[in-house]
Amino acid sequence: MNALLHNWTFMRGLRLLLGVVVLIQSIVAKDLLLGAMSLFLIGMALFNFGCCGSNGCGTRFTNKKTNKTIEDVDFEEVVDKK
Questions:
Q1: Is pTM, for the whole model, over 0.90?
Q2: CA proximity to 21, closest of 8, 30, 34
Q3: Domain boundaries, given as residue ranges, for the chain
Q4: Is 38 exposed, middle or buried (0-12, 13-18, 19+ CB in 10 A)?
Q5: Residues 35-49: pLDDT tens digits?
Q6: Please, are residues 44 and 38 in contact by the beta-carbon 8 Å criterion?
Q7: How far apart are CA 21 and CA 80, in angstroms?
């Protein structure tokens, strides 16, 4: 129940709003496929799943074995003298 009530972001609210609008349009148009897509959008918003739902698009890389953050590597350009 906590997942439904907390951690609402802009994208989660946008998915819910878009899903409700598409659901209303599918009822008006009597379109079953559009209704299924709207229920999918509503489900994504309510249960917070998707590609970026639960920190799926994090930018920090960690080593899973040691749980340490991988440091940035400095590169030096090598110029060929001919």
A1: no
A2: 34
A3: 1-70
A4: buried
A5: 999 999 999 888 877
A6: no
A7: 61
